[in-house]
Amino acid sequence: MSSDFGRILHISVFGQSHGRAIGVVIDGLPAGEEIDLEELQRFLDRRRPGTGPLSTARKETDIPEFLSGLEDGKTCGAPLCAVIQNAGQRSKDYGELADKPRPGHADFTAWAKWGGHADMRGGGHFSGRLTAPLCVAGGIAKQLLARRGVFVGAHLAAVAGIPDRPFPLYPTAELFSEIAAKPFPVLDEEAGERMRSAILAAKNDLDSVGGVIECAAAGLPPGLGDPMFEGVENRLAAALFGIPAVKGVEFGEGFRAAELRGSENNDPFAMKDGEVRAETNHAGGILGGITTGMPLVLRAAVKPTPSIGRAQRTVSLSCMENTDLTIHGRHDPCVAHRAVPVVEAVTAAVLLDMLLEGNHGTF
Amino acid sequence: MSSDFGRILHISVFGQSHGRAIGVVIDGLPAGEEIDLEELQRFLDRRRPGTGPLSTARKETDIPEFLSGLEDGKTCGAPLCAVIQNAGQRSKDYGELADKPRPGHADFTAWAKWGGHADMRGGGHFSGRLTAPLCVAGGIAKQLLARRGVFVGAHLAAVAGIPDRPFPLYPTAELFSEIAAKPFPVLDEEAGERMRSAILAAKNDLDSVGGVIECAAAGLPPGLGDPMFEGVENRLAAALFGIPAVKGVEFGEGFRAAELRGSENNDPFAMKDGEVRAETNHAGGILGGITTGMPLVLRAAVKPTPSIGRAQRTVSLSCMENTDLTIHGRHDPCVAHRAVPVVEAVTAAVLLDMLLEGNHGTF
Amino acid sequence: MSSDFGRILHISVFGQSHGRAIGVVIDGLPAGEEIDLEELQRFLDRRRPGTGPLSTARKETDIPEFLSGLEDGKTCGAPLCAVIQNAGQRSKDYGELADKPRPGHADFTAWAKWGGHADMRGGGHFSGRLTAPLCVAGGIAKQLLARRGVFVGAHLAAVAGIPDRPFPLYPTAELFSEIAAKPFPVLDEEAGERMRSAILAAKNDLDSVGGVIECAAAGLPPGLGDPMFEGVENRLAAALFGIPAVKGVEFGEGFRAAELRGSENNDPFAMKDGEVRAETNHAGGILGGITTGMPLVLRAAVKPTPSIGRAQRTVSLSCMENTDLTIHGRHDPCVAHRAVPVVEAVTAAVLLDMLLEGNHGTF
Amino acid sequence: MSSDFGRILHISVFGQSHGRAIGVVIDGLPAGEEIDLEELQRFLDRRRPGTGPLSTARKETDIPEFLSGLEDGKTCGAPLCAVIQNAGQRSKDYGELADKPRPGHADFTAWAKWGGHADMRGGGHFSGRLTAPLCVAGGIAKQLLARRGVFVGAHLAAVAGIPDRPFPLYPTAELFSEIAAKPFPVLDEEAGERMRSAILAAKNDLDSVGGVIECAAAGLPPGLGDPMFEGVENRLAAALFGIPAVKGVEFGEGFRAAELRGSENNDPFAMKDGEVRAETNHAGGILGGITTGMPLVLRAAVKPTPSIGRAQRTVSLSCMENTDLTIHGRHDPCVAHRAVPVVEAVTAAVLLDMLLEGNHGTF
């Protein structure tokens, strides 16, 4: 078991980049939930490679077919299976790679694990393409959450070290929608312009850049999550590291908290509209693994795309000797902007799972 | 279920800071393994508050009693239960806190979850004290791993923004032992001196500081871990966020990878002593969630101790009105240095669990 | 999460009887395993309704399409997804049933759970049709097990109280093949004849009958399984009750053991060919939840098909009043004989999962 | 992981029969629940060996000490750990057994699994003694269930083939209390008398007998449980097979259903007091794995105690040759009557776990 997560809401992803199809089984969705397929498609489209110079030239339509679980536009209690056909693969681009593991890719570790039997064409099951079915699951979760007053949104917090403005203390559904509607998901357009320049500069250098995605959830009740190993942070981190290229996850101030003093990092409590609120949100909405009722805030670090056009040193697995590799084919000079909806999707799926489980602190 | 983790090796932690005892059940240990109790005690002692000015004045002896699973010094296949009696609590120090949630602590979220029924004296089940039984489990795991050539060690990578030197490309068991023997677990003594000064300065200001712990594992085979949601990163992160005060987890370059270019972050492969190795280790020993055979490297961010001596703004839960709180009693101005063996413990436990599960990539 | 099971080998079933397709995701298969699709199809055909009078007239071809995980006839490490298109549904037969729950079916409990949103056409997700994808998973598991010397087979131990001969002390792969090749899977042809007569008699009475399936696994090593709640019995029972209509599961003598004396039920140990063997196998190959190395023997009780042609008393859920119901459409007067390969499939899947996990008793 | 079960309510059992202590960790109990320790002790006493001739002469007091999770008589949200000290072991009785596996016991399989490192004195971790901590967990679960109108009770349905009267269609809390108060838990005193005679006759013959326990739960809502592999039957069976000596589990008519016709086994629905009820309960309160709202009824088969006074054939593991074994020491000629509260305990624990999880069929 590996490509699945969740307890009540169980999400199982399948497929290889250049196989016949990719897809997802979502088990545990409540019944009678209407799924707005147009809204879902708009969400999926945010992840798709664009037509501009920032992305791969691969054509993906990514229209899910629903084999089960969805009848007359509503969930029916049975596991939902959605399939996306693969098309437009150019596997010949990857021929040489079967023998020469690409630095920074899972080629070598897949070989070590599966003894050369893995289908690694286009990255195989490790490909970013697998995030499309993840977004089907997350897009559905987002709709169910929104119906219950919980809104999940994200922006590109940084590319190549160039920062966007952070979320305000109380991000809203409207702000999330606004960002989602943008072709490049940043709060600060000027920062976005600099990020795009950095991506293009890397592309021109046959190189790539990484970025950071900041995701927030507004509307969560306090008291969600369990102590120690089943807290909100534990469960979100476990799932978020499932997104290809994510190498770090932090909540609230995260690593910056390690540089602050307690008096700076502690969030004073104060009454607001009859409820206990924090005046600041350095904790990112979580204390002791349990939600405070303040917005949940997390960040995920996305490494630079390992596929770059420059010649790189690697080995030949058949000859067990050093060699060089130049990767041809189409590659994103940056995947961080495309990963923004993916981080939202995974976050939404985990939060819906936790809400379905309920707060059984008192029964 | 919340205070447990693991699949084959299942670790379940119990106790409250000021309850009768704390402890751990470790289910799934292989049988016939000799446990060196003196070595275990030395490991536990690294976590204990010292006698110096850097730590709380609370006296903890932390000697585990083994109720089951260990006969004649060897594991016997049955679940191992170790109990540590609590002593030296001064619960009266915490009386006021039942009504006034401490900023940065789980007091408020426990109240939201358990409706005031939680035993939060001394932090209750959320206390850093619960890391003592975690260290029992992890200390045992470390012994079993070492017997199989896998060594886990950690150092204090930073305190209050003051960095230690990072681990070398190939950290060794000897280096880990050397750090473990130090009263303050850093590689660079001069950096350690500056860190200690920063802790004392915070203490003098009735304040606290945080830090970063860097942990490595040497000797792991390549091919360990499963793709997507059961990778090494997912499982380690899920467990590491169970350590109180951890707010961020990253692997290899982690968040810094987001600022690098692909050509800088990719690790070229090269033959070395007949095996495929990477020339650098920006990936921290993991690609696609699966081990490369290079050292595993991770970092965990520990926030500044939320208990500080300064007056803080909070609310009265009984009156639902704003109030002030001054925390008395004994508190660590920094817990990051004490958390170093805890990060080792959790890392070792997860890695042993994965090794016990085996690499079933090919059967 | 509900329609999935397994730890290393994770099997997730989806689909509704009259939906677009049914299928299965199998995550965790070792890579490089050749799957003999013809052998698999022969296995699936054993479950299909026949053309004779014993079965439903519904036409099912049940040919799985592989969307992922299988490349060039071999597993590739990625999750395998197999889909079977639905066809030949006659949903109009089931119109009345949406309001009138059929006695003995899940109609009422699905309504209670999902508030009328369930797609219960043809039994929906509860239909015996869902055992087809289970058989895809189990058929693949059987091939992998056979390759490692573990053989799983089953026969119809009883129909309507008419017993078949039990398995011999050491059932063989050859015996399993022999039964599998029969149109009616019994050891004793004469008993089979009487069973078929009982089924036809029930059919003529617009009624149905149940049966018992006995399944064995030969070639398991001793020492497999864990004590208490992760024993072979626990894991097999948990999965076997997932087969529709199963109402009882027993191992070895099972319920009959409760009528025996210890001196009759204990299996004496004796050396045989240099190995410890039991002289009898009342334990069904399991002691303390762990395999003895003797054949694993279990039985599953299948209740009589609840869909019968006779008028039955039920209620109208819309009017909340008593009413009558006469079920039209095509139904099996007995499903026990078709469930024989399904019990094999589930048993094989669980056993392969346990073998993949390995015996980590000593590491 | 093996000696634990449950999803929200997680129960982890530890200890060996002749080790220092046995115990249980119960994680996930709702907070603020008062535990009546006297009532709990009365429940535990039902499991203890009596002073009469039907039971072992071993003295067990079985008074649990609570190390955590219970403060001022109430649960506090933290995991509850209860420990029962071992006393009165006479390990010298078991010396010979280390080499000669007792037929019908786990001695051989433990040896096969743990290579001779298992502590099998008195049955070690496989001993019926481990059901004492299970009863602590189950006794607490019973109190929480009763507070919510769900009552669990059991009786000895058969010993040595001698049947008790079955539960009535609607068993009540009063009936359960009545049985629980009896020294021998049967509905029909005359049947009980015959059972006791059968036990004594076996004892006189240096032999043992088995039995069947029937357990019911009244007051469950309809709609609890999930389809296929997470149904009420699956989860109960998985846990019930964790009770030593259980070799079969069935629900409602169970194996007898296989001998009935559909018209006999189907339960007609009818309105009763404004609610949908079944007129009969052959289904044992479960259809499709989901509760109907009728009483849950299950039976567990307990094999005859494998420890008997007669000489038995076995092998010497050190010499790998055939030998004889005569077991001395104290043994129950029957454990079925003592297992009655254990079946209640496990059933209650699983049901509470499912209720805590909630029915998320519609959200």
Describe what you observe in this structure.
Four copies of one chain form a homotetramer. Chain A has helices at 37-47, 107-114, 131-147, 173-180, 189-204, 232-240, 262-265, 336-357, and strands spanning 4-5, 10-15, 21-27, 65-68, 70-71, 74-75, 80-85, 151-159, 162-163, 211-218, 246-251, 269-272, 275-278, 286-287, 290-291, 296-302, 312-316, 321-325. Chain A has 363 residues and is of the alpha+beta class. A five-stranded antiparallel sheet of chain A has the order 1-2-3-7-4, covered by helices on one side. In chain A, strands 9-8-10-16-11 form a five-stranded antiparallel sheet. Chain A is globular, with a radius of gyration of 21 Å. Chains in contact: A-B, A-C, A-D, B-C, B-D, C-D. Chain B binds chain C through residues 7-8, 28, 30-33, 77-78, 144, 148, 226-227, 355-358, 360-363, and chain C through 7-8, 28, 30-33, 77-78, 144, 148, 226-227, 355-358, 360-363. Strand 11 of chain A pairs antiparallel with strand 11 (246-251) of chain B.
Element layout with pairings:
The structure is a homotetramer of 363-residue chains.
Chain A: E1 4-5, E2 10-15, E3 21-27, H1 37-47, E4 65-68, E5 70-71, E6 74-75, E7 80-85, H2 107-114, H3 131-147, E8 151-159, E9 162-163, H4 173-180, H5 189-204, E10 211-218, H6 232-240, E11 246-251, H7 262-265, E12 269-272, E13 275-278, E14 286-287, E15 290-291, E16 296-302, E17 312-316, E18 321-325, H8 336-357
Antiparallel strand pairs in A: 1-2, 2-3, 3-7, 4-7, 5-6, 8-9, 8-10, 10-16, 11-16, 12-13, 14-15, 17-18
Helix pairs in contact in A: 1-3, 1-8, 3-8, 6-8
